[in-house]
Input
Amino acid sequence: MYLPAPSGNDFELAPAGTFLAVCYRIIDLGTQKTTFNGKEKEQHKILISWELADEFMSDGKPFMIGQRYTWSMSEKATLRKHLESWRGKAFTDADFAGPPNGFNIRNILGKGCLLTIAHKEKDDKNYANITGIGKLMKGMTAPAPSNPQMFLWLETELWDVNAYNILGDGLKKIIAESPEYDAITHGRPLKPASESENPALDDMNDEIPF
Output
C-alpha cells in the first residue's frame, strides 16, 4: 500500500528511554470512529509495531510496542513526522507522485530505527508511548526481528485471512468493525482511496533506510 499504545493491564511495560528497535508488523485497521473534543469523526487508521532489539521481558522475549496512526501524510500528521525523522529527510511535494513509482509502506518492515519511549500515567494505569523515531546512527545495524513479519491490508488483492486469524481477539474486533472489512468479507467493491489518502514516497537512496 502506498502511503498517504499498549495498555498496562497484565503486560510488561516497555521501558522508557531510547532503544534500537525493528519494525515487524504493519496492520491496516480500516476506517475507525474517533472522538476528539467531544466531536466524533471517522478516520482511516493503521497500526505499526516494533520490537526492542536489546530489551527483554521476564520470559526472554523482546519487548514489543505499537502505535496507531491516522493514515495521512498532511504536514501535521504524526505518521509523516515519524517517517521523516526515521528517514532523516523531509518530504517534498515531488515525493507524492503516486504508484507505480512511489514508496510502499511495506518497505519499512524489518527496518531498524532508534525508538524513544516515555511512560505516562492515566486513570491509575501506566502506559508506554512512542514519542520519537530516529534514523540509526552511522555504523549501527538492526537484527532481524524475532517476531514473524506481518503485513495486513484491507484491500482485496492484499488481504490475507490467515494473517488476520492469528491476531489477538482485540485487534480482530477493531478491524472487523471497519467498513473495509465488511466490504472484503461480503465481496463488495471497496471505495477507492483518494490521492490524499494514498501519498507515495519517491527519491529513495542508500542513505535513507527505506
User: Anything to note?
Assistant: The beta strands are 17-36, 39-56, 62-70, 112-122, 125-134, 150-152. The longest strand covers residues 17-36. The chain is about 15% helix and 35% strand.
